[in-house]
Design brief:
The structure is a homodimer. Chain A folds into two domains: 12-87 and 172-340, HAD superfamily/HAD-like (Rossmann fold, 3-Layer(aba) Sandwich); 91-169, no CATH class. In chain A, 39% of the residues lie in helices and 15% in strands. The first copy, chain A, is built from 15 helices and nine strands. Chain A has helices at residues 12-24, 31-34, 47-60, 91-104, 116-121, 124-128, 132-143, 148-161, 177-188, 201-205, 208-212, 252-260, 276-283, 321-330, 337-340, and strands spanning 74-77, 163-164, 169-170, 192-200, 219-230, 236-246, 267-270, 290-295, 333-336. Chain A has a seven-stranded mixed sheet with strand order 6-5-4-1-7-8-9, with helices on both faces. A two-stranded antiparallel ribbon of chain A has the order 2-3. In chain A, helix 4 crosses helix 7. At the A-B interface, helix 10, strand 5, strand 6, helix 12 and helix 13 of A face helix 10, strand 5, strand 6, helix 12 and helix 13 of B.
Chain lengths: 349, 349
Amino acid sequence: MVSLRFSAGLRPLARAAVLAASLLFPGLATPVLAQAVDPLPSWNAGATKTGILDFVKATTTPGGPDFVPPADRIATFDQDGTLWVEQPVYSEVAFAAFRVKALAETNPTLKTEEPFRTAVSGDEAAMGRLSFPDMKKILMLALEGLTVEEFRAAAEAWMATARNPVLNRPRTELTYQPMKEVLELLRANGFRTYIVTGGGQDFVRAYSEKLYGIPPEQVVGTADAVRFGYDTSGRPVLRMEPAVLFDDLFGGKPEGIHLVIGKRPIAAFGNSTGDRQMLEYAKAGKGLHFAALVLHDDGKREFAYGPAQGLPASEVGTFTQKLYDEAKARGWYVISMKDDWKKVFAFEP
Amino acid sequence: MVSLRFSAGLRPLARAAVLAASLLFPGLATPVLAQAVDPLPSWNAGATKTGILDFVKATTTPGGPDFVPPADRIATFDQDGTLWVEQPVYSEVAFAAFRVKALAETNPTLKTEEPFRTAVSGDEAAMGRLSFPDMKKILMLALEGLTVEEFRAAAEAWMATARNPVLNRPRTELTYQPMKEVLELLRANGFRTYIVTGGGQDFVRAYSEKLYGIPPEQVVGTADAVRFGYDTSGRPVLRMEPAVLFDDLFGGKPEGIHLVIGKRPIAAFGNSTGDRQMLEYAKAGKGLHFAALVLHDDGKREFAYGPAQGLPASEVGTFTQKLYDEAKARGWYVISMKDDWKKVFAFEP
């Protein structure tokens, strides 16, 4: 059943009309009203915006050749670099570094031994140049021995005050407004929106509902090994172990989608080589499918990196020319932040 | 949001009234009407039936001390022995044995080498006496190399005609009518119902929607390792590997719940030692929780096994006296099939 949600683009009067309708007829979807105003106001007119709107219309028009029943309207979104800022380093690494710094108070070798020394330094640009295995060492140390509740509380507390050191803004403000409009548009049309992230599933779950309206059970991510046991008072607890059960990157993304959702998405959004297989998998299904990659080509409002299209190379969120060429060859949309997005962040005037 | 569902127990006139109301006010839940008739007609009056009804009322009464918001109304159900028959052997083992028998046509050593010889024999009682590691060998051989779509098609095809050799009925008819009423009652009251099974996630997903109204994304199970790759025509595929990624039994059940759902259930149902940790975990949360175990004490209508309460021991669905005592000590309900269930199966008069 299509649930009623407000499009971010509804003007006050339209919102009031929708609200009145929802009070009189709870659960009654009002797609006609919702489409009376632009559901993607932060997008510039162009092929990508049109492509998104056409895809939603085609898959939700009853009786149409591309109609998809609501149960199969699954859309998957990478998080870092697709829904929010990932430069100069993934938020999760910054969070883990913050915890490692605290651990270094009682374990001074962390201040001298790499990669922990870099974590303790607080230099996020340097963290962004670490290899994935080194980042993983920092992540594993930061969560070891915590119960899942303790980890979540720590992540929530950190996120409440954490700032991006380059953009000098709270991290929670650094979600992409155009992508949030896509999430809203899809949900208003009966889609379920999932995050499928290379980041830690438990970390992303700590804020996904607040930031994106995506509940814990719709977050597929790299899963830390979690062990059932009992605490000293005999109470059953789930404790995090310094090991990865499941790597949700590259081929791991479709594997993770199968593990948690068990259905092939009909729309997939990403921004890096780690998302390639997810997009290939989504597009290989029967019927109409949508795939898009965000290209970070806007050094003024956000960051410019690739190395596709002559952009500077980056360890974080690598978008190769090969991936760009595959996207073009396969009919995936490449979203230019510079050209396609009127606004990147909600706080812009 | 509470979606409108028909309780299996609604009489024709009440159903018509609910239908009329649903046409006039789509999406409007009608718990009052739904409770005008018994939502659990296959249950005998008694402490367990009352316990279930009281729990649902307490957790869904707005403003009440035990009210739980819909987003947190998660109920988890073991499958084999809790929602349907598991004797003389788990359906999945019977399915795998069927596939191994076909493989033996071209690989005759399977006809002589244990545990495959037992699988090829078709003797389900003998299969039920195999150890878990031996059952796993049969399961792994049966799925090796299949794409997830091929596996699903094979499971669906087998399930369409498979019969239980002792009860001599189609397996799809051997779901427990009283438990299906509990599923319906919970969903009619805004709960999301999950299967959390030691059985293979992909196997159970092949029929869970048809049999229980539970979609693939609400099946947590033992997960086979699945590998992303490309077929000979370059099409991306997910192929099953003869390895287990995740064992969803014992402590693995709460771990699996955390992995896939990310929330603690407020109600949990099981029937064997493999469910113990799931029930402990559910009951250890804050607020009101419900836990119950099905005791198979009805050898006339189904099977009698334990070894709790002097029932015969069984490798399949072991319910020890220790588990029974823990249930009583912790306030878990023990559902007596003999005493609590008016009807076991829908086909009974």
